[in-house]
Write a structure and sequence with these properties.
single chain, 18 helices, mainly alpha
Length: 393
């Protein structure tokens, strides 16, 4: 039903993979049957269409925008054009997203192998899965071999689902943001404020939609490691984000404001293609009063989530992921412009955090924290005086 050719290519391949997976599951129940089914879904929904689109160079316009931003960053030290002539020349992302366009600038597009290696989608996918792997490894490993196999199977099924497979194959623009947010939450739950702040800085330098994660990570760290650690993480995140924003702020502040802030909210010179009929968009279509109503509801939703963080802060990875997913869902639904595809981010946050907990890693961290606290308390005790035994000099 989609008019985009890349979507139609993905749908044709994915439906074959999903049907084959369903047929395999009609066989005898067992781990091998599930593994074959997940493999069939991955082949149809990810590997076959991804390979075809990478080799052919077909992609959504977002990929071209990222690669152009990388070229502009190298040539002009800013990823934004001062006077874009069409919507395709608008860069609605923060300067950090231009880094994914640098491989195309370095490698060029001469030959199929080099063209594939320079494709921004490949590097977006690498950051997503690298961050998810690192986030899982951040916890104390108490899982068994069976748990790890189950986690791998579940991650394969999640990757093969349309939530991940479709954006992975056709654009990939939101994948690194999702991976960095998962990593930031995992590091915060592990009680590592500086590392969590660096992951936050990476996410916040890509798109402004990552910024609601800052108070969530602070609330989680305040519970896990204390208020000082939460403030330290926020300062690291804000400092890193400020450094990443410098190219746009110094060399093209007006263009950056218009393309990053005005354009996505429907107030720019060009009409944003993000026009799914969600509540905020429907209100904005009613005129200026509707647009202000949508913005007011958006701010009210953000305030409600912020108050919930103060009254009932999240205590673990799942609680923090759920709270961030709730805030992002409200933002995507009530924003004056948006796409249904944005909701894949909160879905992935909710599912991935539960996969980590199901493997037993979260409980392992809680146990290790108690043990570590016991050792710290033991070290604080004064040593007993040495009393020699009778007859010993």
């Amino acid at each position: 039903m989609s008019t985009l050719e890349t979507h139609r290519v993905w749908g044709t391949c994915a439906v074959a993979g999903y049907l084959l997976a369903a047929l395999v599951m009609l066989g005898p129940d067992g781990e091998r049957t599930r593994a074959v089914a997940v493999g069939a879904a991955l082949a149809g929904a990810v590997f076959v269409p991804f390979t075809y689109l990478l080799v052919s160079g077909a992609a959504q316009s977002e990929v071209e925008v990222i690669e152009r931003a990388g070229r502009l960053l190298v040539e002009r030290a800013t990823p934004y054009l001062e006077d874009p002539r069409s919507v395709d020349e608008v860069t609605p992302y923060l300067p950090g997203m231009a880094l994914f366009g640098l491989p195309r600038v370095v490698l060029g597009a001469d030959g199929p192998f080099v063209r594939v290696l320079g494709d921004a989608r490949l590097w977006c996918a690498a950051v997503l899965f690298g961050c998810l792997w690192a986030g899982r490894r951040a916890f104390a490993g108490t899982s068994t071999t069976a748990d790890r196999r189950g986690h791998l199977m579940a991650m394969g099924a999640l990757t093969a689902s349309p939530v991940v497979a479709l954006p992975l194959v056709v654009s990939g623009v939101d994948l690194p943001l999702t991976g960095l947010l998962c990593l930031a939450l995992a590091l915060a739950a592990r009680g590592r404020p500086v590392a969590a702040g660096l992951a936050l800085a990476g996410a916040c330098a890509l798109k402004w939609t990552a910024w609601p994660a800052v108070p969530v990570v602070m609330a989680l760290l305040a519970h896990r490691a204390g208020l000082r650690a939460a403030v330290r993480s926020a300062l690291v995140g804000l400092a890193g984000t400020a450094v990443a924003l410098l190219p746009g702020l110094l060399f093209s502040p007006r263009a950056m404001a218009e393309q990053v802030l005005a354009f996505p909210t429907g107030r720019g010179d060009f009409t944003t293609p993000a026009s799914s009929p969600m509540p905020g968009r429907l209100l904005a279509d009613l005129g200026p009063a509707g647009w202000y109503a949508a913005v007011g509801l958006l701010l009210a939703g953000g305030l409600a989530v912020g108050v919930s963080l103060l009254l009932r802060p999240p205590r673990d990875l799942v609680g923090a992921a759920d709270r961030l997913a709730l805030g992002l869902s409200l933002a995507f639904l009530l924003a004056p412009a948006g796409r249904f595809g944005y909701l894949a981010l909160p879905v992935l946050l909710v599912v991935w955090s539960r996969l980590v907990r199901q493997e037993g890693l979260d409980s392992g961290w809680r146990g290790s924290r108690v043990v570590a606290g016991g050792f710290r308390n033991r070290r604080r005790q004064a040593p007993a005086p040495f009393v020699p035994a009778a007859g010993v000099r």
